[in-house]
Amino acid sequence: MPPPPPRKSPRQQRSRQTVEVVLEAAAHILEDGGLARFNTNAVAARAGVSVGSIYQYFPDKDAVMTALIRREAARFDGALERALAGAADLPLDDAIGGLIAVAVRHQTERPNLARILDLEERRLGLEEQAEAATAAALNRLTAFLETRGVWEPAVSAADLLNLARGMIDGALGDDPADLSRRVRRAILGYLAAGPQPSKSNTTPSSGGGLIPRALP
Amino acid sequence: MPPPPPRKSPRQQRSRQTVEVVLEAAAHILEDGGLARFNTNAVAARAGVSVGSIYQYFPDKDAVMTALIRREAARFDGALERALAGAADLPLDDAIGGLIAVAVRHQTERPNLARILDLEERRLGLEEQAEAATAAALNRLTAFLETRGVWEPAVSAADLLNLARGMIDGALGDDPADLSRRVRRAILGYLAAGPQPSKSNTTPSSGGGLIPRALP
Amino acid sequence: MPPPPPRKSPRQQRSRQTVEVVLEAAAHILEDGGLARFNTNAVAARAGVSVGSIYQYFPDKDAVMTALIRREAARFDGALERALAGAADLPLDDAIGGLIAVAVRHQTERPNLARILDLEERRLGLEEQAEAATAAALNRLTAFLETRGVWEPAVSAADLLNLARGMIDGALGDDPADLSRRVRRAILGYLAAGPQPSKSNTTPSSGGGLIPRALP
Amino acid sequence: MPPPPPRKSPRQQRSRQTVEVVLEAAAHILEDGGLARFNTNAVAARAGVSVGSIYQYFPDKDAVMTALIRREAARFDGALERALAGAADLPLDDAIGGLIAVAVRHQTERPNLARILDLEERRLGLEEQAEAATAAALNRLTAFLETRGVWEPAVSAADLLNLARGMIDGALGDDPADLSRRVRRAILGYLAAGPQPSKSNTTPSSGGGLIPRALP
DNA sequence: CATGAATGAGCCTTCATTCAT
DNA sequence: AATGAATGAAGGCTCATTCAT
Predict the structure, then answer these.
(1) Mean pLDDT of the C192-204 span
(2) What are the tens digits of pLDDT across the range B52-85?
């Protein structure tokens, strides 16, 4: 018989729960009301706790924002990890499909949240310190691309993530399936196109010829 | 001899000038201090006018934001127009290069501004009403793609714009030349990849085979 | 006919008046309710202005406190100046009497205010920067003592001021006339006693004998 | 053999100790951080107990303040008692010197504390109820002065205490030895000057001449 | 009894907006 | 029209006090 799972002390449990409920409330408010309605009183009310409790766990309002950003990044990274775990043996095409599904779902479920968090991440200077979870996701994707023989895997990973984010953000109203299709198209296209010379032509096989070929 | 430009009355001139100076101040403040420092007093001070004057020309603070968004959109559209005007006879490759240069320059010059305006555009529901200038830019690009025989030109135009914006936003620190190269790679890849089937394979020519082939 | 007095511009007038009314309200609140009730809302309400107006003229709450301290110091210095002006030709005894009256009146009129301001002066580190008005008062008194041939006039001036303040503060309930009499006794005694040797005795004329002799 | 001191029950002992540690923490905080940092959480943290424990022994925050005031008054009174015990047979001069040393040491060791407690004593209306320990000190000094034949010993005792406090508070930065000298000068002068007529004149021997005579 | 998380009234400060000059 | 002082609602944060554990 397995031993009972390590029991958290009540104190820790309650703390974690309060933190959790606050972050969830913060997420909902940002999603529904935008940055303008994101204030400590509203978050506390929605979380069903008092303002004071927020300040028990967060030094100030920005710290709530930061924690939320980290949490979302960790979630995304977790989903990415799971998707990549099952994608090791799949053809690139299908593997990419899984990753895109993750990304689309992530941005689509709470479209405003993701966008606001992006902006706030910058304001708070969190990208600078190479946010742990974001970096992990990037590393994960980089490693994956490397196993597939992609050149400049780190840069490509970042590009693909950004490209996908841009497309998804910009087309949140669209049918997710169609959006996924187009994102996959962009990603596969980016990978297929391969590194391009900085100025122009030189690659006789691609050049102006490549595109026309794609347009029957 | 060309006729003199339609002369504005002094009153109108002064009005335009005040509006202009206010918007410029607003842009600078958003760029330097973010949304947090964007307040009517600060804008007025930076613009060298009184708060009252702002309210003479804008019903409220959001109206300043809106006007700024429109102005920036118009600027982008104007730059796009000029780029496209000279691109009519160029090979797709080079034409795209010109467009990308416009986009990269636009987002790079005032990186924070562009991002904030994007977010505010949503908050204010301006995308909904199909922002005139944004729509114009989109139409312009759509028309361009159409002449090049791209399928689903409208959707593709939006995708490319979003994709490029995502990449540029996410890599603002990078060398512009290299960033431009990668954006071009993504765009050309997207176009070359052509419409993809929604589910997966079916296209024997692509499938898992396409990518490996692209990576020597 | 004399020209009309230099008219303050309406702007300045209103400003001065608001500042004045705010400081007066602050003084009243400190006097009546102590430090605990000294808050911006209460001051604004009592002054008959809005909180915002306070912040138009004072960067923060402490600045109101500081201004009040300066104002009171200036008032005391002014009163001292007037008292000394008329005391130049008086015998020391009477001159001192006038000064004491000023001090007693100052501390007695708003007993709590004076004490609180003293404490706050320290908290705000205002004594350090040698508060202009306080220093002026001290200098004035120092000069006066010097003309009377008192040794160490600067130190004595400070001692007398402090000594008087201590006595007055500690006996605010007493009859002002009697209090004044005792303060004068202390001051004249201090001056008459002259510099004392640091250790003890040496002064045969004083010793245990001095005091009894003073008590018929 | 003396009987063992009345043994407190462990419970009482612990209580006393907690009270002690809390008051000590309170004193330190007031000394270092002023009234502003004097809050129950800080006191509890510094005392190494929980907030709840403070409320076990004190009905509210003011009660902590009150207890601290009483403790300090008791300490001063204790020191005064010891000083007076040894001063019974000394010449007044030396006796006074000992008392002054006590006062200077008391105010100098924790200068801010003493000042804050003075103010708080007033706010809490503790002087009104003739604070036991303060009254004791006053009585002690009154009795001492009486044995020395000083007129109005009670009033004089209060005056001397206040006068000394004022001088010491106002000159805390000075060299203690020099400060003590000046305080002694003031006190001896006060005593030597004896009761003064309320109005003025009458003392032909003094007038403008008194002071010069004192300054050889 | 001790603990310390939770509570929420209250305070400082900002800023969109108005309006007398 | 332009100005900018005045307004006051709103929001960030603190801290005295309570109470479940």
Answers:
(1) 53
(2) 999 999 999 999 999 999 999 999 999 999 998 8
Burial of residue D27 (number of CB atoms within 10 Å: 0-12, 13-18, 19+): buried
State pTM to two decimals.
0.84
A150-182 per-residue burial string, b: 16 or more CB within 10 A, e: under 16: beebebbbbbbbbbbbbbbbbbbebeeeebbbb
Task: Supply the pLDDT for residue D155.
Answer: 94
Residue C63's nearest nucleotide, by CA–C1', is E12
Task: Specify the pLDDT at position C28.
Answer: 96
Q: Which residue lies nearest F15, CA-to-C1' measured?
A: D39
Interface residue A119 vs chain B (CB under 8 A) = yes
CA separation for the pair A4, A147 (Å, rounded): 40
Torsions phi, psi for A19 (to 5 deg) = -55, -45
CA of B45 to C1' of F16 (A): 42
Residues of chain B with Cβ-Cβ distance to A206 below 8 Å are 188
Percent residues over pLDDT 70 in chain B: 83
Q: Is C176 exposed, middle or buried (0-12, 13-18, 19+ CB in 10 A)?
A: middle
Contacts of B8 (CB under 8 A, 6+ apart): B16
Distance of alpha carbon C168 from alpha carbon C104, whole angstroms? 6
The C-alpha atoms of residue A147 and residue A95 are separated, in whole angstroms, by: 12
Strand ranges inside D11-136, DSSP E: none
User: Residue C165 half-sphere exposure, CB side, CA atoms within 13 Å?
Assistant: 20
Q: Which two tokens stand for residue D60?
A: 């509210």
C181-184: Cβ within 8 A, 24+ apart: C181/D196, C181/D197, C181/D198, C182/D155, C182/D159, C182/D196, C183/C100, C183/C103, C183/C104, C184/C93, C184/C96, C184/C97, C184/C100, C184/D196
Q: Which band of pLDDT confidence, cut at 50, 70 and 90, is reported for residue A108?
A: confident
Facing A192 at nearest CB: one of B123, B159, B211? B211
How far is the CA of B90 from the CAs of A202, B25, B85, C151, C196, in angstroms?
16, 39, 10, 98, 103
**Measured CA D48 to C1' E11 distance, in angstroms:** 28
Residues A2-6 have a mean pLDDT of 48
What whole-number distance in Å separates Cα of residue A70 and Cα of residue D118?
Answer: 51
**Mutual orientation of helices A132-147 and A153-170 as an angle, nearest 10°?**
110
Assess whether pLDDT exceeds 50 at residue D97: yes
Residue A43 contacts residue A26 (beta carbons within 8 Å): yes
Nucleic acid strand F within 7 Å of C49 CB:
yes
The more confidently predicted of residues A2 and B141 is: B141
Helix and strand totals (H; E) in chain D: 10, 0
Higher pLDDT, B134 or A46: A46
- Please tell me the predicted confidence (pLDDT) of residue D132: 78
Distance of CA B36 to the CA centre of its chain: 23
Overall size of chain D counted in residues: 216
What percent of chain A has a predicted confidence (pLDDT) above 90?
A: 52
Q: Which residues contact B5 (CB under 8 A, 6 or more apart)?
A: none
Q: CA C133 → C1' F7, Å?
A: 34
Q: B34 versus B213: which is more confidently predicted?
A: B34
Give me A190's structure tokens: 């980016």
Assess whether pLDDT exceeds 70 at residue C207: no
- Give the pair of three-digit tokens for residue D113: 């504390």
pLDDT at C54 over 50: yes
Chain F, protein-covered positions (CB within 7 A): 1-21
> CB of D49 within 8 Å of any CB in chain C?
no
Amino acid type, C83:
A
Contact D196, C178 (CB under 8 A): no
The first and second tokens of residue C131, run together, are 């508060």
Taking 80 as the threshold, does the pLDDT of residue B127 lie above it? no
pLDDT band per the 50, 70, 90 thresholds, residue C4: very low
Q: Please indicate whether, in this complex, the C-beta atoms of C211 and D167 are within 8 angstroms of each other.
A: no
